[in-house]
């Protein structure tokens, strides 16, 4: 390797390392087993050990059957022999690396200065929520949705370079991990390709027709049958706290933020067009992204009739794509519009980097978090859950329905055991399956007075639902199986 190439490799490694660290710090640090991993980690565990979660299998399957993420991650675990904490960390770093690689490739096609490319990476480390969509631009843990988005960004870069087969393969890779995220990229890039490549229009039209027919079959008599039916009032009531599912009820600020992103994208693109810098594939890319607005509008219209699919697709997440593309063009607008002087791009890069560094320090300090938490914490909850993993795999556990929020990880993740109900994630999974939604609502009602539960109440609940252990800080007249600090594990039978 010659000196110039060695220098380039070293610079790339430093740039990538800086991106991963800043993205992690701005996300509040890396945390294994947090948030949505309350679903994804157990679904992988079931693939690795079918004896786990005999009670909660149907609940886990309600979402798991819609994706190949659990099978894919489990296959990697088997091949590599890595424990899940190490594997999830590796996948987290891979996700950020692919996102950075895709963004850099796009930047090299759009920008003139290298410093502007670095500025884009720095801007992408600034984690933020897509208003009322239930998603963030980054997460502080491995999430298949983030990996699918990274594959989608690589597909966008591939489209700009007129590489058709890699573009299709990258969208398919995204679909394996998170179908709805991949769907938005498929629409975006499908429309863009139709506009940019006249020679492929007949083929794309045929593929679109076949896809439409296949989709209608799946939604009428196939594996997705019933999703064109309206959700009944009882089912909708279980989703009352999931306001990100219903753009119809958005407050003004959500519309302002999301539509404001679209307007900023359009404005920056107009400036770039007038400067004579827009190429055909870039123009098609922007047009393809705006086609997502039609998808969003159609889904919102169908939500007036409570169509299940229009809710389950979570159309508000199309604004994530607008946010990403708007970031690319706004960085260009600030760094290179009017002129492309390197000094101006360098100054902007230093400002964005300084802001990202300051913000990451503030986030970590404010949340009082370590930069990396690679496994279940060794605190009272962690020790109780470690003991739970020594119990019978068929055992059923009872805990505060908000235990994942209170302690940072759920019983299913940290203890690898069935739990009576996990209020946040179980309610979200209920969006995909009415039976799961009704089960969750019933169990939440059963625990409405858990803080005042008596020994007789706990035994009666255990008898009705076949439960074995109760974990709580309350003092109850029941046999104690294990303690750590104020937490006690009681035997229910």
Concise summary:
With 493 residues, this protein is mainly alpha-helical. The chain has helices at 3-26, 37-48, 57-64, 69-80, 84-110, 114-124, 144-160, 164-177, 179-196, 201-220, 233-237, 252-274, 280-303, 308-312, 318-335, 342-367, 380-388, 403-407, 411-415, 423-429, 434-446, 455-465; strands at 30-31, 129-130, 135-136, 372-373, 396-398, 418-419, 469-472, 480-484, 487-491. Strand 8 (480-484) and strand 9 form a beta hairpin.
Measured between the Cα atoms of the first and last residue, the distance is 68 Å
**Helicity, in percent?**
55-70%
Strand order of the largest sheet: 6-5-7-9-8
- Give the biggest sheet: 5 strands, mixed
Rg is 24 Å
The number of distinct structural domains comes to 2
Please count the beta strands (DSSP E, at least 2 residues each): 9
Strand content: 5-15%
Average pLDDT figure: 94
Count of helical regions? 22
Please describe the topology of this protein.
Blueprint: H1 3-26, E1 30-31, H2 37-48, H3 57-64, H4 69-80, H5 84-110, H6 114-124, E2 129-130, E3 135-136, H7 144-160, H8 164-177, H9 179-196, H10 201-220, H11 233-237, H12 252-274, H13 280-303, H14 308-312, H15 318-335, H16 342-367, E4 372-373, H17 380-388, E5 396-398, H18 403-407, H19 411-415, E6 418-419, H20 423-429, H21 434-446, H22 455-465, E7 469-472, E8 480-484, E9 487-491
Parallel strand pairs: 1-4, 5-6, 5-7
Antiparallel strand pairs: 2-3, 7-9, 8-9
Helix pairs in contact: 1-5, 1-6, 1-16, 2-3, 2-4, 5-6, 5-7, 6-15, 6-16, 7-8, 7-9, 8-9, 9-13, 12-15, 13-15, 20-21
């Amino acid at each position: 390797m010659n000196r110039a190439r060695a220098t380039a490799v070293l610079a790339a490694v430093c740039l990538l390392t800086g991106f991963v660290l800043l993205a992690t710090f701005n996300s509040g640090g890396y945390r294994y087993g947090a948030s949505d991993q309350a679903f994804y980690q157990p679904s992988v565990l079931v693939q690795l050990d079918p004896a786990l979660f005999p009670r909660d299998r149907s609940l886990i399957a309600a979402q798991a059957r819609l994706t190949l993420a659990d099978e894919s991650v489990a296959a990697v675990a088997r091949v590599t022999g890595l424990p899940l904490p190490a594997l999830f960390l590796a996948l987290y770093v891979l996700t950020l690396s692919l996102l950075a690689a895709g963004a850099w490739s796009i930047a090299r096609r759009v920008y003139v200065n290298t410093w502007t490319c670095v500025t884009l990476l720095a801007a992408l480390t600034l984690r933020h929520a897509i208003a009322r969509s239930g998603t963030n631009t980054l997460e502080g843990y491995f999430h298949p949705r983030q990996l699918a988005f990274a594959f989608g960004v690589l597909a966008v870069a591939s489209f700009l370079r007129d590489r058709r087969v890699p573009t299709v393969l990258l969208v398919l890779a995204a679909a394996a991990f998170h179908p709805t995220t991949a769907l938005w990229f498929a629409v975006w890039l499908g429309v863009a390709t139709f506009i940019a490549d006249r020679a492929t229009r007949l083929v794309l039209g045929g593929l679109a027709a076949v896809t439409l027919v296949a989709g209608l079959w799946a939604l009428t008599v196939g594996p997705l049958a019933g999703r064109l039916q309206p959700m009944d009032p009882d089912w909708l009531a279980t989703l009352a706290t999931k306001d990100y599912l219903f753009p119809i009820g958005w407050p003004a600020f959500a519309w302002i933020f999301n539509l404001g992103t679209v307007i900023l994208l359009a404005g920056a693109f107009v400036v770039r067009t007038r400067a004579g810098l827009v190429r055909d594939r870039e123009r098609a890319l922007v047009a393809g992204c705006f086609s997502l607005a039609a998808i969003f509008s159609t889904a919102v219209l169908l939500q007036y009739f409570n169509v299940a699919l229009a809710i389950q697709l979570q159309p508000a997440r199309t604004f994530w794509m607008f946010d990403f593309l708007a970031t690319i063009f706004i960085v260009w607008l600030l760094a290179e519009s009017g002129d492309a002087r390197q000094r101006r791009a360098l100054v902007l890069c230093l400002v964005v980097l300084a802001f990202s560094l300051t913000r990451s320090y503030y986030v970590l300090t404010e949340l009082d978090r370590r930069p990396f938490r690679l496994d279940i914490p060794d605190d009272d909850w962690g020790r109780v859950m470690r003991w739970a993993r020594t119990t019978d795999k068929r055992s059923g556990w009872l805990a505060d329905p908000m235990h994942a929020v209170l302690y940072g990880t759920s019983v299913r993740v940290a203890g690898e055991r069935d739990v009576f109900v996990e209020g946040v994630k179980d309610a979200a999974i209920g969006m995909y399956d009415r039976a799961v939604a009704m089960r969750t609502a019933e169990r939440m009602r059963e625990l409405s007075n858990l803080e005042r539960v008596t020994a007789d109440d706990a035994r009666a609940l255990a008898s009705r639902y076949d439960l074995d252990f109760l974990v709580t800080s309350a003092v109850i007249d029941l046999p104690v199986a294990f303690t750590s600090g104020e937490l006690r594990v009681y035997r229910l039978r």
